[in-house]
Design a protein that fits this description.
This protein is α/β, with parallel strands linked by helices. About 35% of the residues lie in helices and about 15% in strands. It has a domain of about 70 residues: Nucleotidyltransferase, domain 5 (2-Layer Sandwich). The protein is elongated and about 100 Å long. Keywords: Cell membrane, Membrane, Protein transport, Transmembrane, Transmembrane helix, Transport.
């Protein structure tokens, strides 16, 4: 957009045809300073020692109870299928022992969380103290 001064206008009264970028630069510098000050505050957090990933093989003891939940929500004690009431009855017997065995739950990856949650709730309801989840070890040679 070219503007030409009117006839007879001298150099001082001539219209300026460029954009004044000084306010834009001022605003950008203020924003830069604000971000430089606030970023360290946002990234600061409470010093915690987070748990490290560990892969401990389970110690299979004959008294451990292995429960399985298949993809359809079926519950198995070893290889025997059970409903939730029969499971609670068996877990009551296990919970009454002086030295409770560990309950290991193997849940199918395609199983709904609700099905596995019912097994955990049944264990808690009868007073089982040690519940573990069995998973496959990570593939070796990955990262």
């Amino acid at each position: 957009m070219g503007m030409t001064p009117q006839d007879g206008a001298d150099g001082e009264e001539a219209m300026i045809s460029t954009i004044n970028t000084t306010p834009l630069v001022d605003v950008m510098l203020v924003l830069l300073i604000i971000f430089l000050i606030t970023v360290p505050v946002v990234t600061a957090s409470i010093k915690l020692e987070l748990p490290k990933e560990r892969n401990q093989p389970t110690q299979t003891k004959p008294e451990n109870v292995v429960l399985a939940v298949d993809r359809d929500g079926g519950i198995f004690w070893g290889l025997e299928p059970l409903d939730i009431d029969a499971l609670q009855a068996r877990l009551r017997v296990v919970a009454a022992k002086d030295e409770q065995p560990e309950i290991h739950i193997r849940g199918d990856m395609a199983a709904r969380y609700e099905a596995v949650g019912r097994v955990v709730a049944a264990c808690q309801k009868v007073g089982i103290r040690k519940i573990g989840f069995i998973t496959e070890p990570p593939a070796s040679g990955g990262r």
